[in-house]
Design goal:
Length: 472
């Protein structure tokens, strides 16, 4: 792989592919959830922007805007649709076609093995808490490594383990929709640690010389608005909860004993931990870190004595931004704080560009010179198109410009940043937020029956930005 800085954009299988039951694909937990009454919105990713049939056009447009890398995920149930472990050749062939297109334009693929969409047969057995999940995942990962080999220079095991576990078991807005279930949250994260390590063990056995493997973290380090011993404790506990339970084992190969003690002291039963797993974790760490960057995680001491998690999936388009925020609180540990001087987006999430710099600098402080790819960064908006479908998304441009500025500053200040991916390549399904919350550089017209792609102003801005920053 060339050593050029990678400039690209990102998607995920369930969010963009559509073709949910085509060519032998099995259902994922998201297919089942979206088709069930638990999905009160009734909105699904059945078709979405139909990347399954539009991939050639989407990749061509990426290339035309100068992007030299594409982050996407493989749908596990497209490759191993059923419990019998029989491999679906048509599934493998689809991603071969995607890789052919990337190769045609010299676009470096950065490929995630699972981005929330577990196969339904794993879901039935307990999903991420199923004790056999790491062996199933390692099997699937080995099929992928064997088939695509070094055609894929950057592999990612799991997208946003902590956010996935958090939505599944704390907030309850993702399947299996448990609320405040900290026991399952801990179990889920641990199984993800083992999945990551067992997949990496398979990867190492392939003996690749030109491919690397990493993990993608969803949030940045915790921070606080005051610097007192109590606030520092709150930050530490929030990092235990959101960051260190995944990143320490994945990067350093072990859990901090203090973290495990703190978790046990909360009454969480850690008897699912096994010495043989810890040995595998120790010997199978990542080559790089993928870091998604959106906003800060500001916390203060937990004064309420409450454990609660809130999200805003509904959005608010009245222009006030006075929406329900994303908050988290764990009794005795920490709770979310708010800096009232900072702007929120329409879903109550902070817009704070400097968090990009702080995140990268703190990762370096804890994990040394590990190569880092900013695997997602983007701005969710209610885009308003003109009569031709063109969107003048100046707000998104300002957002991207400011965040990238801070990322490049972190690189100048010594962080080993190797690439940047804007979320998202084109408009797609935004999970529980549906289709109204748009992130794409390219608009998708969901109403015209053709799913026409129309580049937004940000697409052209990004093209020019890349030209000017090719050699950073
Ligand atoms: C993180 C996730 O990886 C992606 O799936 C999601 O749509 C974006 N962030 C935007 O919230």
């Amino acid at each position: 792989m060339s050593e050029k800085f990678l400039w690209g954009s990102a998607t995920a299988a369930y969010q963009c592919e559509g073709g949910w039951n085509e060519d032998g694909k099995g259902p994922s937990v998201w297919d089942t959830f979206c088709h069930s009454p638990a999905n009160t919105t009734g909105i699904t990713g059945d078709v979405s922007c139909d990347f399954y049939h539009h991939y050639a056009e989407d990749i061509r447009m990426m290339a035309e805007s100068g992007q030299n890398t594409f982050r996407f995920s493989i749908s596990w149930p497209r490759i191993v649709p059923k419990e019998d472990r029989i491999v679906n050749e048509a599934g493998l062939a689809f991603y071969d076609r995607v890789l052919d297109e990337c190769e045609k334009y010299g676009i470096v693929p950065n490929v995630t093995l699972v981005h929330y969409d577990l196969p339904e047969y794993i879901g039935q057995k307990g999903g991420w808490c199923y004790e056999g999940i790491a062996d199933e995942f390692a099997y699937y990962a080995a099929v992928v490594f064997q088939h695509y080999g070094e055609r894929i220079p950057l592999y990612v095991t799991i997208n946003e383990p902590n956010h996935n576990a958090y939505c599944d078991y704390c907030v309850g807005n993702y399947p299996p929709n448990h609320k405040n279930d900290l026991q399952s949250y801990a179990h889920c994260l641990y199984n993800m640690d083992v999945c990551n390590a067992k997949a990496i063990r398979e990867f190492r056995e392939m003996g690749f010389k030109n491919s690397q493997i990493g993990i993608v973290q969803g949030c940045g380090p915790a921070t606080s608005l005051q610097d007192t011993p109590e606030y520092r404790e709150a930050v530490k506990y929030c990092d235990y909860f959101c960051n260190f339970g995944i990143l320490d084992p994945a990067i350093k190969g072990y859990f901090e004993p203090e973290l495990l003690e703190a978790v046990k002291a909360r009454g969480i039963d850690l008897s699912f931990m096994k010495d043989e797993d810890l040995e595998i974790i120790k010997n199978n760490t990542v080559d790089f870190l993928g870091q998604n960057i959106y906003s800060r995680l500001i916390v203060k001491p937990n004064e309420s004595g409450i454990t609660a998690f809130t999200v805003n999936n509904a959005g608010n388009n009245d222009g006030t931004c006075k929406t329900a925020r994303e908050t988290r609180a764990i009794a005795g540990w920490f709770e979310s704080d708010r800096d009232t001087d900072t702007r929120l987006n329409k879903w109550g999430r902070e817009i704070y560009p400097k968090c990009a710099y702080n995140t990268l600098m703190l990762r370096k402080e804890r994990y040394g010179n590990i190569p880092i790819y900013v695997t997602e960064n983007g701005h969710g908006c209610y885009d308003v198109p003109d009569e031709n479908g063109y969107v003048e998304d100046d707000d998104r441009i300002a957002f991207l410009n400011d965040y990238i500025g801070w990322i490049l500053k972190a690189k100048e200040d010594g962080v080993n940043v190797k690439g940047y991916y804007c979320w998202s390549t084109m408009d797609l399904y935004s999970w529980i937020n549906g289709y109204k919350k748009r992130y794409g550089l390219v608009r998708v017209d969901y109403e015209d029956g053709l799913l026409r792609r129309i580049p937004k102003k940000s697409y052209y801005w990004y093209r020019d930005f890349i030209t000017e920053h090719k050699d950073v």
